[in-house]
């Protein structure tokens, strides 16, 4: 629905859900396109959001021990939810069933709601008047909030906001978000320094 | 047409990344630093995107009804409201502020 609200057709919206099937990346792509970003930088931003799925895949491949021939088919369902369900199971059989059931039901539901949402948005017309353009950032915020557990994550988020907004007027669309990704290594570096100092203090006290 | 290029590039990239995770031998991505970085990258990206979608109009920064909507979403999150309610709060408040003339 957010997608149709930002100028994509029903077909484009549905293709996105069928082919990409990673919520955060889809929203990111649509958001960047709506903000006037060029298609390749928009795709790059969406791609980086999808990178975490590689780390899920790594854990899942040990857990599920899928035959090589099945992996290319299973890959499309490697997302937050299927990983969470699979990791919660006690044995391999449970994990495999959990992965397949979660993957299939989410895939069907996600694409059905996308179609309904896209058709609905077309019927509604001017989505801005209904405040639907605020749905995108609200979804991001809801995804982001549970991730902000420690100082390091908060530092990374804060820095990224500053970089993203500060560079927006001066760099072409889509690029500020990529630069804002630098907040992650910067926050890690700051964490390293903090820990180094804490260790130094502890040594001082012992003396 | 441009939109289709973006959709195609994203679809291929996201699928490749998912498959890589399943095929890459363990150990390579097991290093703690790589792991921490991978966990932090989405945080930074989501934060920047949230801010931009709230305060950006094209390439200029603006303060409009969307900011009120996001604030409502933040309050809903602090009150531990379920996901859909958080989004609904943002949408409703934004529409409300616009209707009043914000």
TrEMBL record, chain B:
Organism: Streptomyces galilaeus
Keywords (A to Z) from UniProt: Membrane, Transmembrane, Transmembrane helix
Highest taxon, organism lineage: Bacteria
TM stretches of this protein: 6-25, 37-55, 67-97
Record's protein name: AzlD domain-containing protein
Pfam families: AzlD
